[in-house]
């Protein structure tokens, strides 16, 4: 029987594993101790979990794995961002990015799938096609491994964005499980409010996510204000066009203190003019929206170009004047393989 990934259980589920397993039963309080080792001390060696009885340590070793994923490679940027490449037991790879924001704030950008079905034309991950969904444990481990590697104490609040490889709403089961585990108070204690699901805009799945009422934040990769360009950039727009997405966003349960984030990838000469800015303002009318402008980060072979700083700033100024919140995402990690899928690509061709 294959071993279960120890990072795939909420504390309540872990209690069940200990109390109800047919081999040997252990008291429920042991789950809290195991959680403490895994998520506070970042200890993944069961034999070193000293306050657990030997019998339990052996039970864990025989039935669970804590090393289903390992860091295969990492690249550090001069601005402190670090890109991690993880390798799974079946020898597949996926990426996560550690971003150092202002004032000692950290954001972790997590993957939800190996490859992706959505097929955005600007995305390197899309080029390799879809391989498989990440499991809950494989997703959670990204956070544990980065916190451990960066020496970030367990109780330090960090932000999570599900914006790495894959479309998170295409793997909602694992994403949901990951959100629950990350928010466990005896574990990493990252509240759902600090976790943002970023989607390419699969309208019926936005509805499904809203119905789950997980308390997470929502980000939409909009990138264009007319369907023709959006379909060119994101073919999924043929199935769910801009209006269908906006209609769904209007009914999504949003935390009163938060906004729906609209990601807008600025591409030179394509969507970076004031005409586009005007349309964007009209489109987001009466939505509690925040726009995040992102410089396109060109990779080898890409047909798109990075826009000028002046154009991006003029775009932002226009939105601000019209009363829309707007930020420009700092281009973190420009000197590393920061675009989604680049580090994996390098590993595959080594
Ligand atoms: S940008 Fe995101 S949704 Fe689009 S293909 Fe790449 S990984 Fe998938």
UniProtKB/TrEMBL annotation:
Pfam families in the record: Radical_SAM (PF04055), RlmN_N (PF21016)
Domain Radical SAM core: 102-335
Gene Ontology MF terms in the entry: 4 iron, 4 sulfur cluster binding; metal ion binding; rRNA (adenine(2503)-C2-)-methyltransferase activity; rRNA binding; tRNA (adenine(37)-C2)-methyltransferase activity; tRNA binding
Entry EC number(s): 2.1.1.192
Subcellular location: Cytoplasm
Positions contributing to [4Fe-4S] cluster binding: 116, 120, 123
Entries under InterPro entries matching the protein: Aldolase_TIM, Methyltransferase_A, RlmN_N, RNA_MTrfase_RlmN, rRNA_lsu_MTrfase_RlmN/Cfr, rSAM, rSAM_sf
Binding annotation for S-adenosyl-L-methionine: 166-167, 198, 221-223, 297
Cofactor info, note text: Binds 1 [4Fe-4S] cluster. The cluster is coordinated with 3 cysteines and an exchangeable S-adenosyl-L-methionine.
Keywords: 4Fe-4S, Cytoplasm, Disulfide bond, Iron, Iron-sulfur, Metal-binding, Methyltransferase, rRNA processing, S-adenosyl-L-methionine, Transferase, tRNA processing
Annotated catalytic residues: 95 (proton acceptor), 340 (s-methylcysteine intermediate)
GO annotation, cellular component aspect: cytoplasm
Catalytic activity: adenosine(2503) in 23S rRNA + 2 reduced [2Fe-2S]-[ferredoxin] + 2 S-adenosyl-L-methionine = 2-methyladenosine(2503) in 23S rRNA + 5'-deoxyadenosine + L-methionine + 2 oxidized [2Fe-2S]-[ferredoxin] + S-adenosyl-L-homocysteine; adenosine(37) in tRNA + 2 reduced [2Fe-2S]-[ferredoxin] + 2 S-adenosyl-L-methionine = 2-methyladenosine(37) in tRNA + 5'-deoxyadenosine + L-methionine + 2 oxidized [2Fe-2S]-[ferredoxin] + S-adenosyl-L-homocysteine
Cofactor annotation: [4Fe-4S] cluster
Family: Belongs to the radical SAM superfamily. RlmN family.
Note: Reaction proceeds by a ping-pong mechanism involving intermediate methylation of a conserved cysteine residue.
Record protein name field: Probable dual-specificity RNA methyltransferase RlmN
């Amino acid at each position: 029987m294959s071993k279960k990934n120890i990072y795939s259980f909420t504390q309540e589920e872990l209690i069940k594993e200990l109390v109800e397993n047919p081999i040997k039963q252990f008291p429920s309080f042991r789950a809290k101790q195991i959680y403490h080792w895994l998520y506070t001390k970042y200890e993944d060696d069961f034999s070193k979990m000293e306050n657990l009885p030997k019998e339990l340590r052996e039970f864990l070793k025989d039935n669970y794995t804590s090393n289903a994923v390992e860091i295969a490679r990492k690249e550090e940027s001069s601005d402190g961002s670090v890109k991690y490449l993880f390798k799974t037991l079946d020898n597949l790879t996926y990426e996560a990015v550690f971003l150092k924001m202002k004032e000692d704030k950290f954001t972790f950008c997590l993957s939800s799938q190996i490859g992706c079905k959505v097929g955005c034309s600007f995305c390197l991950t899309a080029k390799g096609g879809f391989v498989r969904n990440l499991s809950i444990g494989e997703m959670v481990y990204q956070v544990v491994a980065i916190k451990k590697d960066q020496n970030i104490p367990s109780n330090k609040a960090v932000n999570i964005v599900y914006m790495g490889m894959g479309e998170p709403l295409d793997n909602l089961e694992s994403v949901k499980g990951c959100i629950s585990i990350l928010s466990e108070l005896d574990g990493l204690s990252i509240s759902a409010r600090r976790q943002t699901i970023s989607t390419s805009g699969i309208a019926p799945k936005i509805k499904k996510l809203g119905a789950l009422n997980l308390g997470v934040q929502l980000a939409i990769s909009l990138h264009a204000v007319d369907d023709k360009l959006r379909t060119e950039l994101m073919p999924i727009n043929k199935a769910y066009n801009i209006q269908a997405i906006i209609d769904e966003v209007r009914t999504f349960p949003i935390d009163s203190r938060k906004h729906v984030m609209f990601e807008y990838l600025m591409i030179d000469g394509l969507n970076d003019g004031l005409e586009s800015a005007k349309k964007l303002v009209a489109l987001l009318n009466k939505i509690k929206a925040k726009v995040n402008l992102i410089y396109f980060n060109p990779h080898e072979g890409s047909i798109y170009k990075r826009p000028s700083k002046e154009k991006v700033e003029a775009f932002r100024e226009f939105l601000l004047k019209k009363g829309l919140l707007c930020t420009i995402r700092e281009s973190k990690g420009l000197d590393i393989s920061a675009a989604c899928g680049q580090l994996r690509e390098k590993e595959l061709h080594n």
